[in-house]
Amino acid sequence: LSDKVLFFTLSARFKTRELEGLGMEIKKEAFNKNAGRAKKRVVPMVILDDVTSSPAQEAIKRLLANREIKNGESGLTRIKPNDLILLATCNPDPVQDDVFPLSAEMREVKVDVENLDSNLRRRFIEERLNDKDYGLMIANKETVKKAVLLIETASFSNEQRSSLIGCVSLRDAVRCISLAKKALYHWPNTDEGSIFEKLSIADLAVEKELKALGLSCYICFGIRTIPRANFFKRVRTIVGIDLQPFIHSFQDAILNELAMPANVVKTEALKENLTVSVICLALRHPLLLLGCDGTSKTLSLSMAISQMQGKFSKSTFLQGIARMQSFNIQLSEATSASHIAKIKNTVLEWKSKLSVPCIFMEELSMAKAGSTGPLRALHDLLDAHQNMAGALSRHEVGSGSNAFAYVATSNYRPGTKEIPIGRALANRMIILAHPDPSKADLKSLAVKVGMNEIKVQTPDETSKNHERVEEMIGEAVERLSRLVPRTVSVRSLLSFARCLGKQLSMGNDEFQSCLLGATCHLQKINPEETKKVLRAAVGSKAPLEIPGVTARLESLLGLHGAKRPILFLYQSVGDIYSIVRHVREATKAVMDKLKDDGVQKVTSICPCSSRKLSEEIQSQEMENLSPERLYALLNLKSSIEAGSTTFILNPEPMLQGMHALLNDFDQSYSTIQINECNENLCINPSAQIVLLVHWESALSFHNALLSRTAVMNLEMFAQSRLRAWENPYSKLLDHYSNQRS
User: What's the DSSP call for residue 544?
Assistant: First the structure.
């Protein structure tokens, strides 16, 4: 038997042609090992890892079960059974692991490997702790026992597993020990000392190895436990170590090294995000931030990456960490596996020694599933460091020798607290799973956002208004908190708080201010659900007199309110005509009130006027945009930069490319995805986006997309007898539409 093992990791990029080429490589290796060795024949061993991640299951079946490289050419391309030992590994469950199912022939030759029993698992952890190259080399036997107990309690105990998000494997234990070693001896690079010394953190009253393991257990297991109190309680009860005060002091120390903008609220979610982001970026551990919108996922990663500037960082602690060069990609249904493959090639070919490339993927849950989906290529991306020469990452993932860093954000699977990606992929990342925001966090965050909208006044007026407005915003948010995040998204709640802050600071009535803010920012597609939200917002049984169209549009266009992209749900052609007319009139009124002498610019975009054709385009598995959608996105880019009011009729074909723009609409810069590139654009403060969507189409929209817009449901006007669309033109167009259909 050869003393070397050939190890190949398969992925979504391995199609039939690549598998046949791999088979030829394997056969050539077997031939070379046996050539000229009549007396002593050496048999090589080949392992194919993650074979179910490849879509070419027929080619894999021929290679492994039949020892055949090419179909129909068995005489020339067979690998003889005694030429080599050929093994394969895989995650077998197509649903839970998000992999391709094994063929019937492969299921006949498979061997199911059960999980290690507790004794073998304990022995594995102990051996790893004492490994001279990758372990902590703990001399005291009692400390070793306590370290093993700490890891088992944090990860593999039955009570802990029940509250963990995602699955746990021995890979997590290896990652935990590796991280503890880096934190204790080699932070962030070889022979550079302890992270605790660099941050000047007060000692935990335990051995230094247990302190480092306590931190790594929190990062690998604690941040996946919901609620967090369960993790700290089990460690305190079973192991006898009170980690919670130590972890809180560690979070505060990390936050002290970062420049925090004045308008950012330091919630528990933000503290956890920033702490784990800095550590994972420094060690290049793949990281996934998981939670509902409003848990500061994107904000935290953007803050951490922007401030990690190597020697140019403002913090001495951050100066010892490599500079991060971000490569952002907003995932959507239009993103394909080839997008991920091209980003992988870009970061692996990165030549700069001054910075480290960092792949930043947003909204994994919005990516399309299936054989061409981008998540199929993530296995190959996250295992790319295994091919790097000199990297020790096969044994020490996240050692800092990786060629790039990887961070991602995602929402939970709709209606659950489950990870929206397969177990095998999730197990390659450190996962920070957020619980739903607490009522206290929601209240403090919304009050802070609302108070930021109050204009500067005299000291006496400021103190009086602050107390009054703060109290009113807090009461309104408290009434709505029971609907967050299932019915009302956190992002929409914060927009409501901004609008309420502006209205109340002007001395407006509390009831009318709450009603205006709620009808602008908290509307749902279902009118009955909207009524329930409005009633909770105003907190009164008084009749709900829906504010007029003009008042609502002026608020959403930035006058005494929070400016957001508007999503109009129309029912007929007449509605479209009247929507455009009212938005133009409201825009002109806002410009007059703001004394803007500029010319109102209007752009109309219709990426695909036929809804049927739109559905056909979406159903095609195309890597590039159709010419119509490409032109529409380029037109959108130019209109936003020019400050136009942009109407997009039936925007479904181009929504995938504008997710980031809708999310960043209140910022100065954003991106739109055109083909496989992210185009930068400057957002003109005068620009506005109005999406005109048929209400039936809106029912299939992703919740993350709906939370980025202010929904305007015309059915609410009809039910409140305030529908402003009745005019001869709309009736005529409705009649024409009915006759034509």
Answer: -
Instruction: Find out whether 488 and 533 touch, Cβ atoms under 8 Å.
Output: yes
What's the token pair of residue 139?
A: 């001399």
* CA of residue 133 relative to chain centroid, distance: 34
In the structure, what pLDDT confidence band is assigned to residue 736 with cuts at 50, 70 and 90?
Answer: low
Q: pTM here?
A: 0.84
Query: Mind listing the pLDDT tens digit for each residue in 84-121?
Result: 888 999 887 887 777 888 888 888 888 998 888 889 99
C-alpha to C-alpha distance for 414 and 422, rounded to whole angstroms: 15
Measured CA to CA, the distance from residue 143 to residue 149 in angstroms comes to 10
Count of CA atoms in the C-beta half-sphere (13 A) of 633? 26
The CA R_g of the chain, rounded to the nearest whole Å, is 29
Give the three-state DSSP class for 355. strand
3-state secondary structure 443-504: HHHHHHHHHCCCCCCCHHHHHHHHHHHHHHHHHHHHHHHHHCCCCCCHHHHHHHHHHHHHHH
Q: DSSP letter at 5?
A: E
Contact 426, 220 (CB under 8 A): no
Q: Where are the alpha helices (DSSP H) in 43-117?
A: 57-64, 74-77, 104-109
* Residue 6 backbone dihedrals phi, psi, to 5 degrees: -85, 130
Nearest partner of 246 among 210, 198, 279, judged by Cα: 210
- Give me the phi and psi of 602, to 5 degrees please: -130, 130
Continuous segment of H or E residues that includes residue 645: strand 645-649
352 within 8 A of 316, measured Cβ to Cβ: no
Task: Round to whole Å and give the CA distance between 211 and 423.
Answer: 29
Q: Which amino acid is at 598?
A: G
Strand partners, 405: 358
What are the φ/ψ torsions at residue 567 (nearest 5 degrees)?
-110, 100
